[in-house]
Each structure stands twice: as C-alpha cells, then as structure tokens.
Amino acid sequence: MRLNDKVAIVTGGGIGLGRAYCKALAGEGARVVVADIAHDAAQAVAKEVSGLAVRVDVTSADETAAMAARALEAYGAIDVLVNNAGMYTAIRKRPFTEIPLEEWDQAPCSAARPCSCTT
C-alpha cells in the first residue's frame, strides 16, 4: 500500500469524484478525512472508508482551519490534500448556453477559493 498511514483530507468527499478519491486513498492505506458541507454524505463515506467525517464550508477560512485542526487532532498529521469541493452541483442541470452568467460566476469562485483557504 503506497499511502500506508498517510493522512488525506478530501474536500467535497461526500459525493461523486470526492467519494471516489476517498475510496481510492483508503484502498492505498491512507487514513481519510472526508470533508464536505453535506455532513450526512460525509458521514456515509467516512463509514465506508473507516475515516473521519468533518463538516466544512470550504469558502470559509475559519471552517477550513477548523477542518485542518480536527484532522491533526484525530491523526496527528496531514500528508495529502485533495481540493475537490465546488459548487457545480448547485447549478441546475441544463445546456451550458442556458445557464445564466450569475450562476457561472458563483461556481468557479467557490471551486477556486478552497485552494487559498486550505493550502
């Protein structure tokens, strides 16, 4: 196992690609922190991977700092950070040309901001 005893935080880990990242990291031996604004989803994935669920809004510097502190408290280190969280799921599914600019403006900002808050 390539990541044996490494600690990985996956933001947006409760669904979709985030869930897949959590499962893959755990499969390689990592201890996984499943961080998501949807705490119920994070808890479900954490149960699947024997990890730790943390509710976090990654657009909040205070909440991301608390997420990191919780990971350090539980596991003593942070070795891997997967900045996967974004608000793309908040956009109502329809052809791209029909999505108002106001919705697009929200999605990229919230997807890029976690990088500055969590790294």
Topology summary:
Elements: E1 7-11, H1 16-27, E2 31-36, H2 39-49, E3 52-55, H3 61-75, E4 80-82, H4 101-118
Parallel strand pairs: 1-2, 1-4, 2-3
Helix pairs in contact: 1-2
What features would you describe in this structure?
The chain is an alpha/beta fold and 119 residues long. The chain starts with 6 loop residues before the first strand and ends with a helix. A four-stranded parallel sheet has the order 3-2-1-4, sandwiched between helices. β1, α1 (16-27) and β2 form a beta-alpha-beta unit. It is built from four helices and four strands, in the order βαβαβαβα. The chain is globular, with a radius of gyration of 15 Å. α1 (16-27) packs parallel to α2 (39-49).
Task: Please give a handful of descriptors for the protein shown.
119 residues; alpha/beta; 4-stranded parallel β-sheet; 4 helices; 4 strands; 15% strand; globular; disordered C terminus
Strand content: 15-25%
Strand order of the largest sheet: 3-2-1-4
- Please mark out the parts with pLDDT under 50 across 5 or more consecutive residues, or reply none: 111-119
Q: What's the main sheet like?
A: 4 strands, parallel
Tally of helical runs: 4
Overall helicity: 40-55%
Q: Report the strand count.
A: 4
The average pLDDT is 86
Task: Give the termini distance in whole angstroms.
Answer: 26 Å
Return the string of H and E elements.
EHEHEHEH
Choose one word for the global shape.
globular
